[in-house]
Automatic annotation (TrEMBL), chain A:
UniProt cross-references to Pfam families, sorted A to Z: PaaB (PF06243)
Record protein name field: Phenylacetate-CoA oxygenase subunit PaaB
Lineage: Bacteria, Bacillati, Actinomycetota, Actinomycetes, Micromonosporales
Top-level taxon of the source organism: Bacteria
Automatic annotation (TrEMBL), chain B:
Species per Swiss-Prot/TrEMBL record: Micromonospora rosaria
One GO location term (cellular component): cytosol
Protein name: Phenylacetic acid degradation protein
Alphabetized Gene3D superfamilies for the sequence: 1.20.1260.10
Residue ranges of the TM segments: none
Length: 97, 249
């Protein structure tokens, strides 16, 4: 249904539950615009619960890291211990750290 | 037949028949997401119908529960307004019907929250939140289609013109409704129309649609005199219970 992709692009949906701390990616859907994407997300992913926060983002607006480059992207941190807070010794008596 | 029973039955039948019509869209909506939305609204209407018909059964005191009232009454015993029993037509007709009905239901339930009848007030408190969503959803499509393409505008205008006459019945106050209003149980239907117009007209204007003139005002649903559409709808809805009366499911 290539026709539909033009009329109703893909949206990614993030939901923060009533007592949740952060928005989590819950899925995607097709909708002609943000207003309808929000309404559809409310029906599809939250069952219209009260006190739920929803974000919708056009899938095209998201830039993802490339799986092919993941070694170069994430590796440098692994072998440089000074990048990790665990490298430092915590003096005795320091609370709340 | 008590006035309160009559009133609760009317509200319940509106919701039940509207639910049945909306359910006919299942798997046939223009978009998958819209399919889910229509089913959602149908389920809300059915939920309200169950609460209202259960209460009506208790008020009547003749041992009829929600199922007996839904499945074992003929069309002459149904008290729904004619608007809800009209065929779904195209998507525009369905949205016109839903928009005009839900706008009425929202005002109706809003007022009922302060009813002197506690049970009715509690049912209304639950239903009005759902109605607000229904109005919102239908209004969005009325605007979208009205202000969409030339063809969608033409269809949306035709749909509003077609169903508008049937809205007059929602605001007709008969003797029974007048007595209930005196007791503070439920506002007289005729007192709700200005507020309803206040909700409906701006949406039609934004949608670049012409608000139809008032004129022909078919009625009779509240007295059990329906269009030719209701008995077919009931035949389909009731077939199983008629074939196996008293069965449990």
């Amino acid at each position: 249904m290539s026709e539909r992709t033009d009329l109703s692009p893909l949206w990614e949906v993030f939901v923060r539950a009533r007592r949740g701390l952060s928005h989590n990616h819950v899925g995607s859907l097709h909708a002609p615009d943000a207003e309808l994407a929000l309404r559809n997300a409310r029906d599809l992913y939250t069952r219209r619960q009260e006190g739920v926060s929803i974000w919708v983002v056009p899938a095209g607006a998201i830039t993802a890291s490339s799986p092919d480059e993941k070694d170069a992207f994430f590796d440098p941190a692994a072998d440089k211990v000074y990048r990790h807070p665990t490298f430092y010794e915590v003096p005795d008596g320091v609370a709340h750290l | 037949m008590s006035d309160l029973f009559e009133f609760v039955l009317r509200l319940g039948d509106d919701a039940l028949v509207a639910a049945q019509r909306l359910a006919e869209w299942t798997s046939r909506a223009p978009e998958m997401e819209e399919d889910v939305a229509l089913a959602n609204i149908a389920l809300d209407q059915l939920g309200a119908a169950r609460l209202l018909l259960s209460y009506a059964g208790e008020l009547e005191g003749a041992g009829r529960d929600e199922d007996a009232l839904a499945y074992l009454r003929g069309d002459r015993e149904f008290r729904n307004c004619l608007l809800v029993e009209l065929p779904n037509g195209d998507f525009a007709v369905t949205m016109a019907k839903l928009f005009l009905l839900a706008a009425y239901q929202r005002i109706r339930y809003d007022r009922l929250v302060t009813s002197t009848d506690e049970r009715l007030a509690a049912i209304a408190a639950k239903a009005r939140k759902e109605s607000a969503y229904h109005v919102d959803h239908a209004a969005l499509w009325v605007r979208r289609l009205g202000d969409g393409t030339e063809e969608s505008h033409r269809r949306m205008q035709a749909a509003v013109d077609e169903v508008w006459p049937y809205t007059h019945e929602l605001f007709t106050t008969d003797e029974s409704a007048a007595r209930l209003a005196e007791q503070g149980v439920a506002a007289a239907p005729s007192t709700l129309r200005d507020e309803w117009l206040g909700a409906v007209e701006p949406v039609l204007a934004t949608a670049t649609l012409t608000r139809p003139a008032d004129g022909w005002a078919p009625g009779g649903g509240r007295e059990g005199v329906h269009t030719e559409h209701l008995s077919y709808l009931l035949a389909e809805m009731q077939v199983l219970h008629r074939a196996h009366p008293g069965a449990r499911w």
